[in-house]
Design goal:
This protein has two helices and four strands; from the N terminus they run βαββαβ. The chain is an alpha+beta fold and 65 residues long. It is globular and about 30 Å long. The structure holds copper (II) ion.
Length: 65
């Protein structure tokens, strides 16, 4: 499993928005987004992490490395 830190999530709506953005990548599966931990966890089958960071930034959150 991979994790990606995400800053700026404050409620379950944020969690839902992040999850939806990540679900658009066919290479990701088993996606969970944890509000308290401020991170997403997923299995990544070949998606460039930079693309994930870009998608998260576009919807207004701040991705970590
Ligand atoms: Cu929110």
């Amino acid at each position: 499993m991979d994790t990606l830190k995400i800053k700026g999530m404050s409620c379950q709506h944020c969690v839902g928005a992040v999850k939806k953005a990540l679900e658009k990548f066919p290479g990701l599966s088993q996606i969970t987004v944890d509000l308290l931990a401020g991170q997403a966890t997923f299995t990544n089958n070949g998606v460039d992490r930079q693309q994930l960071r870009t998608a998260i930034s576009k919807i207004g959150f701040e991705p970590g490395e």
